[in-house]
Design a protein that fits this description.
17% helix, 16 strands, alpha+beta, Diaminopimelate Epimerase, Chain A, domain 1, single chain, 16-stranded mixed beta sheet, 2 domains, 4 helices
């Protein structure tokens, strides 16, 4: 069986996206991991299925590159909106369903295969304050640690150690190292499920902005986020340690398409 796929990336966070509306196929954990493998497969941080969902433009089902179904992916959500636009399912706005519920999105600009997209995140807040960082769930769980210079941190070794700590058992946590600047945040992320540093993480960027606002309270905020793979923007309204009207903005680009051959 041949299954068409498209490859998208959002600030270097890359995904295999499959239009599953006419397919009965369900990928196994091994199949997802094999397709995401960067040496023997297509290569990606995750695989996403686009399906029909009554009352919504589409449904998003996300798998990490280890093959396991996971929680919300912010960059992946923007890429899904771009995919839906290429398929003609939407024009300028989208309403879709993901594991953590309903999401709105808006296409701000399109230049060929490059889209600028705003994705509305669900309301969030501080889940727990630790002596060494902040635990915030933005569709996926994140531990945010502020450091003097994120560029000298060994994200793989330090992130991996925190990801498996008992305090985040049994599912573990994504780990974000953040350096605060007056006009932007510099962030690097170790992602569970990928089990490595990724070039960008949308839910991590969102969690970092909320943590920064808790450290430096504002009523409404706009943070520019610098990731290794590119720049994002986060906006929100703040009331103490709770946040509403959270939007993640950034690019989503079509890379290439092809076919997966399933026996």
């Amino acid at each position: 069986m041949k299954i068409p796929f498209s490859k998208f990336e959002g600030t270097g966070n890359d995904f295999i996206i499959i239009d599953k509306r006419a397919l009965l196929w369900e990928p196994t954990t091994a199949e997802v991991a094999a397709h995401c493998d960067r040496h023997y497969g297509i290569g990606a941080d995750g695989l996403i299925l686009l399906s029909d969902k009554p009352g919504f433009d589409f449904d998003m089902k996300y798998y990490n590159s280890d093959g396991r179904e996971s929680t919300l992916c912010g960059n992946g959500g923007r890429c899904m909106v771009a995919m839906a636009a290429k398929l003609g399912l939407i024009k300028e706005k989208a309403l879709f369903h993901a594991m953590d519920g309903m999401h709105e999105a808006r296409i701000l600009n399109r230049d060929g295969n490059i889209f600028e997209i705003r994705l509305k995140m669900n309301d969030s807040g501080l889940n727990k304050l630790f002596d060494d960082g902040y635990f915030i769930h933005t569709g996926s769980p994140h531990f945010i640690r502020f450091v003097d210079d994120v560029r000298v941190i060994n994200v793989f070794s330090e992130g991996k150690a925190i990801r498996y700590e008992d305090r985040f058992a049994p599912d573990g946590v994504n780990v974000d190292f953040v350096t605060w600047h007056p006009d932007y945040l510099d962030i690097r992320t170790y992602e569970r499920g990928v089990e490595n540093e990724t070039l960008s993480c949308g839910t991590g960027a969102t969690a970092a902005a909320l943590a920064a606002a808790i450290r430096h309270p504002v009523n409404s905020g706009n943070y520019k986020i610098k990731t290794t793979g590119g720049n994002l923007k986060i906006s929100f309204h703040q009331s103490g340690k709770m946040f509403t009207d959270i939007w993640l903005e950034g690019p989503a680009s079509f890379v290439f398409s092809g076919e997966i051959h399933i026996k």
